[in-house]
UniProtKB/TrEMBL annotation:
Annotated protein name in UniProt: ABC transporter permease
Membrane-topology annotation of the record: Multi-pass membrane protein
Keyword Transmembrane helix: yes
Subcellular location: Membrane
Any single GO BP term: response to antibiotic
Principal subcellular localization: membrane
GO cellular component: ATP-binding cassette (ABC) transporter complex
Domain ABC-2 type transporter transmembrane: 13-199
Alphabetic keyword roster: Antibiotic resistance, Membrane, Transmembrane, Transmembrane helix
Single Gene Ontology MF annotation: ABC-type transporter activity
PANTHER family: ABC-TYPE MULTIDRUG TRANSPORT SYSTEM, PERMEASE COMPONENT (PTHR43229:SF6), NODULATION PROTEIN J (PTHR43229)
Amino acid sequence: MPSLVLAHTRYFVIESIRVPIGILASALFPAIAMLAFVVPFAGGDPQAATMATASMMFFGAMSGALTGLAINVAQDREQPWNPYLRTLPAGPFPRFVGRILSTVAVMLLSVIPVLLEAVLLTEATITPVRLLLGLAVLVASGIPFMLMGLLIGFLLSSKAAIAVSQLLFFPLAIVGGLLLPPAVLPGFVDTISPFTPARGAAELLWAATAGSTPDAVALVMLAVWTVVLAVAAGWAYRRDEGRRFS
């Protein structure tokens, strides 16, 4: 079984490299936002620059987790090869885990340009231990967005998945405080921000990388979103399985 998981992971990673638009989109959008907003306005403040770098890192990782996974799963369902693979004795587990691991790899690749900009162009500071902790938190915080991507991918066609995932991604990033600090958000947006999964992920990252105190409501809601989306993604998978193989 581990060899099958590795084989599927390798296949998905090679597939992503051969058509790198998803990786480029996940990496370039936060890098451009970093240059436009963080470097000129917060680059000279070590604390602010560190927290803003963490936000931009998760902005790219969230794109790979939500948009990338939603589109890839939806496209897989439309390929004739996919139903055949799901009928093999090994079952869907190796391919499913391989898809998740390749998504994590894309998430980690997407943070490299932002990290380089932070090192070269800002006063952001972080210890190696906090950096490793931040990367671990980034992957863990991406779980609800991967589940959201799976939910969309199992429910919708590839064209619809592109539109819906994008429509969800940008509002969640904005309301979650990834593009603007929560302190400068409009009052009504700041009120609902802690109830979004993006804000909970950001709070965890800020705590891991900059030592800030996380908002308790945001953390609780991140856990709630993870459970709800896990249940919803499981239901969507069983629904797809029943409609296509029963």
